[in-house]
Specification:
159 residues; alpha+beta; Glutaredoxin; 2 domains; 5-stranded mixed sheet; 7 helices; 47% helix; elongated
Length: 159
């Protein structure tokens, strides 16, 4: 999916967001969160504005943004499916489960289905180790997943 907001609007709205955080200590993460909330992602044009407002290099801002897996450079689909890739989930079939959903959706990690319905993201621990394998769908945790349960979650997104 592609952001449908003119670059000048991204710059102006990002500047307003950044200005609202300049008086707090450690404003970068709150700014990134608010920009993503505003646009559904953190566009390249926003990185330039944030860097200028905080007197940082674009590389520093990009480095922080890319370190945290929840920030994205392009808007997500209408639904986001995050599948745990940590050891506990892998030890009880998470890899097979993940491969099955990737094939069923026809996309890879960090991709969105062509219809814009689902974005698939890997995560490294959802804190449900005792209920592995686990996933998060639109912010809701699901544990003890198998093919049928995960297929049901994905099918629900189509409605």
């Amino acid at each position: 999916m592609e952001l449908q907001v003119p670059e000048a609007d991204v710059a102006n709205r990002t500047a307003a967001i950044a200005d609202g955080h300049l008086n707090v200590e450690g404003p970068l993460l709150p700014i990134l969160h608010d920009v993503q909330k505003e646009f559904g992602c953190v566009p390249e044009a926003a990185l330039r504005v944030i860097a200028d407002k905080l007197n940082l290099s674009r590389a520093e801002v990009h480095g922080v943004m890319s370190f945290y897996h929840d920030f994205r450079q392009e808007p997500a689909g209408r639904h986001v499916l995050k599948i745990c890739r940590a050891e506990a989930c892998q030890s009880v079939g998470g890899e097979v489960l993940a491969e099955g959903v990737r094939k069923a959706l026809g996309i890879g990690w960090h991709e969105t289905t062509p219809d814009g319905r689902i974005t698939l993201e890997p995560v490294y621990c959802l804190g449900l180790c005792s209920c592995a394998p686990a996933a998060m769908f639109d912010g809701e945790l699901h544990g003890r997943l198998d093919d049928a349960a995960l297929s049901g979650i994905v099918m629900e997104a189509g409605r």
